[in-house]
Design a protein that fits this description.
Four copies of one chain form a homotetramer. With 438 residues, chain A is α/β, with parallel strands linked by helices. Chain A is built from 14 helices and 17 strands. In chain A, α2 packs across α12, α4 packs across α5 and α7 packs across α14 (420-429).
């Protein structure tokens, strides 16, 4: 795997930051340009990995360099936000602007409107100038000050946009697709020998980016999801054989459902994309649900949107001649399956289905995320001035690191069903380890 | 109209409350049994109403009587909660128990499980004993400690339940249907000459009970709805031609949508059941929505679930041969209509639809509702000991009053489109007065 | 008492509002200029008051008039905020600006900085132009966009400021002192025959303005106070003989302490300015507190800052030779008295004292207050265009009315110890009716 | 340094947990008893540390063992909470009870009342039985279900308490002092050869325990502190030369002040115990504050309670003949110094001082802390069954580890003024690197 980031060239200029290079003088220190953070910290894994210590894998440590690649006085910066909303986007924008303006002295920062589309020839005039006073209070709102859109744009058009305006620092806040788009920008810049740093701040509310402790917005999403689960519990508890069913975000990774179920303290079943489960049969989900109702009188279920997708194929292949996938929504599907199961059994129950959808992603960042976003913004700027490009910043084992975009997008973080995080969920909820017939 | 409440008979016993009958001694006073509150306070209306002052309409004022109808030492009380959840149900239960236990000295209070069904012969054993320690912290939760269900039970079965246990005070927390059920209990009690007070605490999250300033839970519902509208605004604002569409509660009365739209500060259109509107045409909703997008780039719409029900008939009669009403959900219907309207116009837009549903009703009561619930519980107990029956309690023009159930259920409170409350909505949102083609 | 407001003169111009004068056409109606709301609604009081119906007291009903006193196209408006912070100040400012701009078409609205001082010759240049985009999001913050200060300014200087800029509508948001200041402005305007409407929006977090259902910010203050009381309960409950003591706002009226104590559900003693109480003696507060600790192991006390002021004199006159009032802070004084009382008794206890101070008043308005502030802003503008001056707006028995400033400042609203509101507090807390030795 | 924990002896019994020992079977795995986590992950430090890989420092990894030291069927467990309140104490209690009851099958769990004192002979009878239903909802409250107290008890008395009741698992939730007390219990147990596991869950709201990523409650404390800082900003912003001064927790470590100042986005100065600063002089704090007022018109200051303690000595030695330390409270001291400084300069300013004190520590845990507490409770139980004693559990670089109490109490975590965390604070606030005259 490729752990080192592309570099634009030498660190030619002295940093405008008045930091120290000596530990112990009570002045914050510059970070050595070759500082590194070990990737693995499990001893057993390390012993296998490292026959020789030098072969250990590491990330580049992020932070301010004593010497920097760009002359801040002669360049412009730009910020773009892409994809769906996520708590904290405004916090990152704010931090980038504050850092660029106050600490590196960038005189003009462009805010590109509505994602990559805002760099098209047609929309180029819509960009706005970002100053500290423009962004001063935006961390108190959800959404994105700049607006967002989905979909790529030709790297040629985008680099034209940058080059015409002498934008040498581009900060892209977005998910997998955005980072891939940013990589094409980076390649086009290299092709043209246009000396620009393309730095990403990875955005995924599902927290499914590998090699990053957590993605911004995830803490807020879990908090909001936990509130919704409390509502589902109130509904379930308030009816005879009451069932509260909540659909949460999580296409490939069920982390929001998993963590919020621990926090809730009231969830009995957590269905995530990583976990194969049967509906029917003695060890199927429905039998376990029935058991829960019989013994406790109510139940709360959290289901991630990507869970149980294999169920649809089976259902359709056996019941639908045309072969079309009829059910696309696991939440509504479960609602229907549970209801008809108990109807057939002659057991009266009351199911309340909650799909909080956009409520979770459009909320302002909580304190944890706000702080993390602020730090991410600061480190993204440090990374760009350190001449890294095609790079994302994130925290790894409590340190901030720089990771190649190619690595960050190479695989997704998913729940390890054998690991301690999932065990915590099982123990907090009492859910069976397997709901699958053999 | 019938403003006076049924009375069980004389006020035979001295109140155990150590209150005063003299104003000015700094000890809270008993309320005269014939104290009354004027219904109307608009001078113009009053002048028409009252050719002679004695003909003015009034409510009976609620509060502790110096002499009471029941001997607290020899009777039992019971509490039942029916219908859908509403913020504050637990707060009312808690207040009733505290008041009955600490102030009137009722030694046993039964909590009936899962609504009127809990009084059936089959379920009668499920009732629980309510004490101060059982209810001490329940005001911090949403839902109902006792559980709820819908649907009536034979008054004979219910009065059997009461009579066997010597329950002379029954407090029913519920909506229209519950109050009608309580009226049948009351009639059956009278028929049997079973001396019991049946007192209701009206529950309607929609705030659509006439002759009551506001119903409990409404303030909380508006608060939660306002949060959701802020989410819709973040979504709308974050996209080119972004539209945030939120469906809120309100079958007959759009008060939640109306009030939360004022609070939000970001809503542009509020569609309520009281307001007839066209979708199409020059002065239709869709044309106004298009104008908003063209001038401001985004829009937020709040729609009450009972709004625009006349639209379905028209649609179906023209497009569906079978004559079935296909669209039952105004939220999903609007989502579809808006999307297809702009598609036809070739205008690209991004619509985000939010249906918060149970999230709003299962939340704990906010401070306003908590206080009001506490007072309602206290006054319901006062009313029962004052020998009133078939009565609900509520606040009217800042005073607590007792109102006959028959009156409280006779008509619904709806938004007066000619009145100042709706004007406040129109002025806060900028919505046109009429969206109807002539 | 003087219930009618001063009028500037005729209603010369047609209103720019497109409202209706016919009930039942589903278009919001203008309000008749002589519409009135009855002050009293208690039947017993009314019967005494009114031997003849015409003698009943009433307020002028607020709302839009079909004809107005000013030509909106030729005048300016200004807004000033004075005194201490209160939740909702920004909401009122926002509503005034939106109403003036969008509905009455005022082209320039000045925001005066830092209270009346901002109208002085020295500071006159600091005023800012208020537009919808300036105020769009300010309702999400606490504080005052305009800033505030205390203290008056010469009416001559202030009217000079208005007259030079052709400011014919002045909206003053402030408390008693501010309203008195506004009255001097009004008198000076009348003296000069300067045709300007001076309208107040009464601000008192203590809710102690008479003749108004409630003042804005009060609901939020009660909510925040309730949160603090929950903290005090956690502290008290977590220690043997734990005592949680919270000092809340309320110089003359203990309404914040009273209402938040009901909401909390955990308060045992509420000490307010209206309630005389002894510390010592068999029926003194300390003996009751000791009893509470002995029977329940912990206690929570809410004390309003103006409570027990008579205690200081007594204490000092007996213990301090110099005659100086040594204790000015009832919170700290109680803390000391309670601690030394139990020390003397040899009873170990743990007292935690919380003074939330500015936390409560600098918080953003909650939903209830936000809506009320929005309506107050709308009605203040209606009042000014109706040619009323020296007027405040407020709600009375669920209607919006206009009240002369002289009446609004003539007396304070205090808790009626004989009334039902205080009874609700006593019953919710279990506090003795009197803690006074005879 | 001593990284390995004491072990009680062999892992004699099979675990009742139905986990797997094979990776990849989608069943959560037992953790090898010798699994370890590397302490350091900075490459430069590692290279110095490790001439040979085997010498690297590591922690023992926490988690369920396939074989355990105790037979769950024959022992009892107990829980004790000591010291000041901290958000999350109830969450830890709840998780311990749930884990012991449902997963390890402990039949009786004692809750010791009011700290170590509850194990004294006098108080021994006050302990309560903890079951899942007792703790079911306690995570929604602040405080401690069990109550707390300060101060130690003789280890002999405490081990007598344990031995008489066959309590073999003692979970102590508390700070430094508590862990030292637990160490004396552990030693006394070893002395008597009483086979009991003493496991600590370190509690410090200041987050100042070394070798742990974060302590529970810290996230909540930062969140509440951030709210208070927003209040201070509203106050400061609302007055000419307004100053908001907030005192926050942090006796030795200013982490709450530091992190909440980042989150707030409005703080200009953060004074922490780690940072020496002068008040006077050209480069002193007061000169910088004056500069801020002159350029921006308002300022917000966060001060940790342990900051600037050296100032008192100096002040007193120069101004107070008796040599007594007169000022103990840096918040009040700063308030006075700032006020008199600007008075002397003839600059009018308005300072609002907020001391939120107990509000921050008595609040319920937020979602982050709730999850962490749940995991801590689970791992504490795993640790005890793994036969570790004199051990605390915590997270280290995203893994849960077991750390000897002696190590955990050996040093405090403080802010590294040369490190990246403090740099983030300086960059977010704009505070000078040094406020010290040379």
């Amino acid at each position: 795997m490729k752990w080192l980031n592309d570099r634009l060239g030498g660190l030619t200029f002295p940093s405008p930051l008045k930091l120290s290079s000596h530990r112990g003088d009570q002045i914050a220190d510059f970070v050595d340009d070759d500082a590194r953070i070990l990737v693995e910290n499990d001893w057993n894994v390390l012993q296998k990995q490292a026959k020789e210590p030098v072969e250990l894998e590491f990330f580049e440590k992020s932070g301010p360099r004593a010497r920097i690649h760009f002359d801040p006085g002669s360049i412009r910066a730009a910020i773009v936000t892409c994809g769906g909303l996520c708590p904290g986007v405004n916090d990152v924008i704010r931090s980038l602007v504050m850092q660029l303006h106050y600490h590196y002295g960038i005189s003009e920062i462009l805010g590109i409107r509505y994602g990559f589309q805002g760099m098209s020839i047609r929309e180029a005039g819509t960009a706005i100038i970002l100053t500290p006073s423009v962004v001063e209070t935006i961390h108190t709102y959800g959404g994105s000050l700049l607006g967002s859109s989905r979909g790529p744009l030709s790297p040629i058009e985008m680099v034209d946009f940058l080059q015409r305006r002498n934008i040498r620092l581009l900060f892209a806040i977005g998910g997998d697709g955005t980072l891939r788009g940013a990589m094409t920008i980076n390649e086009e810049c290299r092709k043209r020998a246009f000396d620009a740093a393309i730095v990403g701040i990875p955005k995924t509310i599902d927290n499914d980016i590998a090699f990053i402790d957590r993605s911004f917005g995830f803490s807020t999403a879990v908090e909001k999801a936990t509130e919704v689960l409390a509502c589902a519990h109130a509904e379930a508890h308030g009816a005879q054989n009451g069932i509260g069913l909540v659909k949460l975000m999580g296409r490939n990774s069920g982390l929001i459902a998993a963590r919020s179920s621990i926090a809730s303290g009231y969830v009995n079943f957590v269905l995530v994309p990583e976990l194969p489960f049967d509906l029917d049969g003695d060890n199927g989900f429905l039998a376990h649900l029935q058991h829960r109702l019989e013994t406790r009188g109510h139940a709360v279920i959290a289901v991630a949107e990507g869970a149980g997708q294999d169920l649809f194929v089976t259902t359709n292949s056996t019941t639908d001649a045309s072969g079309n996938v009829r059910f696309e929504d696991i939440g509504l599907y479960l609602k229907q399956q549970i209801t008809s199961y108990f109807e057939k059994k002659g057991i009266s129950c009351t199911l309340k289905y909650i799909d909080p959808s956009y409520i979770i992603r459009s909320t302002p960042a909580n304190t944890e995320d706000n702080i993390y976003c602020t730090e991410l913004g600061q480190h993204a700027v440090h990374a760009a001035f350190a001449g890294r490009t095609g790079t994302v910043v994130g925290s790894w084992h409590q340190e901030f690191v720089m990771i190649p975009m190619s690595l960050a997008t190479a695989q997704r973080k998913v729940i390890d069903l054998d690991g301690h995080e999932w065990l915590a969920v099982l123990q907090a909820t009492g859910q069976p380890h397997l709901m699958k017939n053999t």
